[in-house]
Amino acid sequence: MNPAFVETVIKTETGSYDIEAGVRRIGDDLLVAIWGGEKPHIGAVAVAQPRPSLKTPETTSATASVICFPGHKEDELVKGVSEVLAAVVSTKVVVTAGIHWDNLSEKGIRKVIKNSEVLVDLILKAVSSP
């Protein structure tokens, strides 16, 4: 992680189903809040830490634990984002997410998933860039 990185807000700008993230360095660790849609909220939380991969121990992977509020569907999002960030940045990560659009179609869901992948790339660039 870039030692100069402290905090930023990042947004996808694809034109539809865009999402945002607030990213804050806390010591050597990362705190990430992801939100978007008509009713942003906190739906799920994940904590992840890096560890040697079980398949190839010379590669860094991550393990995450998730808490999801009943009726919310952000559990897969926070788990995936926290594991990627923890493994790549090699630090402990906490991710919260709450994204909601009324009557979201299958196509809309796929777009949100794609935007979450874009958001992770933007976060990695922000925390790694000098």
Task: Provide an overview of this structure.
The chain is α+β, with helices and mostly antiparallel strands. The chain has a single domain, classed as 2-Layer Sandwich (Ribosomal Protein S5, domain 2), CATH 3.30.230. It contains two helices and six strands, in the order E-E-E-E-E-H-E-H. It has helices spanning 75-89, 106-128, and strands spanning 7-11, 19-26, 29-37, 44-52, 60-68, 93-100. It has a six-stranded mixed β-sheet, covered by helices on one side. The model has no long low-confidence stretch (mean pLDDT 95).
Short description:
This protein has one domain (7-104): 2-Layer Sandwich (Ribosomal Protein S5, domain 2).
